[in-house]
Amino acid sequence: MKDDPLDFIRREVSKCVFCGFCEYDCPTLNIKNDRGYGPRGRVRVAKIFIEKDIFSEKSLEYIYTCVLCSACVLSCPAKVDVPGIVVAMRRFIHKKIID
Ligand code: SF4
Ligand code: SF4
Fold first, then answer.
1. Which domain holds residue 37?
2. I want to staple 29 with a disulfide (CB 3.0 to 4.6 A). Which of 38, 67, 69, 76 is the partner?
């Protein structure tokens, strides 16, 4: 990630058209009957964080259950870097806890 993490998240999130193609290949989507455990849900969490500064305990769970496998990137027509978004979000969370 070369640019500012917030700019990176904003850019990647803006590429997502919420089509859901990425969900077919995500190994964590079926942890529970909840789309938050898939790539589209994680992008949505990042979008809400960027646009409204809202981040719930549930969002934390969605972000930390991603195994960073990148399967979603391969199936995404817009090549959204979901694992990159997840890593950037985790960095923010760590910073918030430490600061
Ligand atoms: S990350 Fe890609 S495949 Fe997944 S919902 Fe967004 S645009 Fe569609
Ligand atoms: S990188 Fe995360 S969101 Fe993408 S397919 Fe793997 S577990 Fe799912």
1. 5-98
2. 38
